[in-house]
């Protein structure tokens, strides 16, 4: 009855507001009866409460998207305080239908103007209820079957189902056609007390969240905070450490669609990603002194810009959706993790490079780490990571190759980043004869490796020689082909596009092999004729020098050597105290040895080493050691020979000079026999022994001279052939050093053959001893026993020399020594 009175009152007020008629007008009563009857008899559909809740949730999220969080929070808090009745969905549905862009017209300040009415509505009386709906109808007390059009509520249904059936309903309760009645018999009433524990736990948990500051937000709001944080912007949920740019969570939040634990874990993962991205941003803001690191910074900046654009696309998807999408924080984490994975991996590489020790770290450690990561990403098939890391690697490598290009084309180390270049200028003002080996040197790290990226290690030696060749050509006063052409050739380093194209066409080629092949091809285009230019400029002068040394030191023309030796012996015999005038001896050598073809007489010089002078009747062999013949060779050739004085050739000339002097001492003895008397048998036996010794000594000297001439001719021929086939100064230097070592060993001038050399010197002194004994033997002042002693010494020394040469040849010595040992097996008469 109260419900009918309320409907009547509301209907009367509705008629008055629509028609404007006063309540005492005659038409109001008829209109009211018709309207109330129509409301009672008309059927209507119930409002879906779940749809109303979803529409309000969508409206709250829309407030957040449109930056009206104040309206969203106010609406959400008031919906929670709204009492839950069966008519609440109806009220809310009406409000939704009456809304007109509330985000533009509504203000939170207007809520403060709302006041609760102080006038209490009057309770209806029975007179008013009976007056609106009289109880005079005849069928008012009949039983009515409640159905779809029933105006009773759910409580009435429940009460009726639990009541005892009346007399009028007992006959129809079990009628098979009365489905509603049959359904009521099978309804099981729920026990409301079963949910008391759940409700109490929820209330306790809600109190705990409130005490811990846990705040509920929509997922769209949290996503907006996350995306802002990934951009490096300050947010409400996340906190940014100003020292290391680490991201932390400052507010404990949750969402209506996920548990607080899940939301917290997801936010922690977002914070880790944001920390690594901020680390990259902070590193990009730092100033790098090395040019290759600046290029790596530029490449990483491009990657960060691309990542920011992807994050903007995610923001646009939620702010201006073009299609229906699910707002999910977990799905966003998956997408962001996939997008930021290459960049976060780069942050780990940079952090590893920074944490390494500065003293032990190579200046190109970051490039080496990027190269290793690129190879790993390629082998793992991670195309996204490979694209980002390889772009940074090749950007830094290309910048580094510019300084390498300048060194290869100019022969000058770069002024910028010179302390990190693989070439250092060791001696700026070194002598020209040492410029190739002493001016520049490879810069080494503490571990012994060259200061260069790991990928460049196989090419360092070649680039080092290429730059030195350019500097050497400049000192020679020559121009390279690039300089002659006006530097019209543009050299470029391999770029990422060409390598990517090669990888697409041949995916089985590894990045390392492709880089090495590209660098090799690039180096071939720098200056393919550099080594040939050096060879062409040096070879002619070097071969002339070899020919001149053969004439001056090794007696290629025996007449010239004899023309120098005979005046020297005559001067030593005639002026034993003043024979060692180096100016006169130099003039003598220039006038004799300097007349050979290809020999520059002004380059010949004779020096006398200082020492005590012990004058004897024939101090030839002792004094000849003080004479040092030298030949001034051009400074370009000195860079090949690594010496100005050529000590091996000087020692070989001294040996030849001693052999000639010894042979000269033995020549006049044959003509002295004519002065002897024919009756002295004892004297004849001594002379016979002396002549036999003289013959054997002359045989030994001839064999030794032939060995020197043959060895010199053979080795000089090999030297000329190998020099013509050499490539570059280093190869020429190795050939020269090898041939010089063989010459020293073949002529028994090396320190390992000192005993054999001393034995040969003893035999030469025996020639001098025989020359001293011969006049005494002729005058009868010496007996044949003295000559026999000299002969025995010769036989012993010769056996020692022969055995020593055979031992050296068996141990892998030169073939010329074996030939000399075989020739000395013949005793010479």
Automatic annotation (TrEMBL):
The keyword Cytoplasm applies. GO terms for cellular component: gamma-tubulin complex; microtubule; spindle pole; spindle pole body. Keywords: Cytoplasm, Cytoskeleton, Microtubule. Residues 223-481 form the Gamma tubulin complex component protein N-terminal domain. GO terms for molecular function: gamma-tubulin binding; microtubule minus-end binding. Residues 65-154 form the Gamma-Tubulin ring complex non-core subunit mod21 N-terminal domain. CDD domains: GCP5_NTD. Pfam families: GCP5-Mod21_N (PF14609), GCP_C_terminal (PF04130), GCP_N_terminal (PF17681). The keyword Cytoplasm applies. Residues 551-823 form the Gamma tubulin complex component C-terminal domain. InterPro entries: GCP, GCP5_N_ext, GCP_C, GCP_C_sf, GCP_N, Mod21_N. It is found in: Cytoplasm, Cytoskeleton, Microtubule organizing center. Residues 164-174 have a biased composition (Polar residues). Residues 151-174 are annotated as: Disordered. Gene3D superfamilies: Gamma-tubulin complex, C-terminal domain (1.20.120.1900). One of its GO terms (biological process) is meiotic cell cycle. PANTHER family: GAMMA TUBULIN COMPLEX PROTEIN, GAMMA-TUBULIN COMPLEX COMPONENT 5. Belongs to the TUBGCP family. This is Spindle pole body component. The lineage of its organism: Eukaryota, Fungi, Dikarya, Ascomycota, Pezizomycotina.
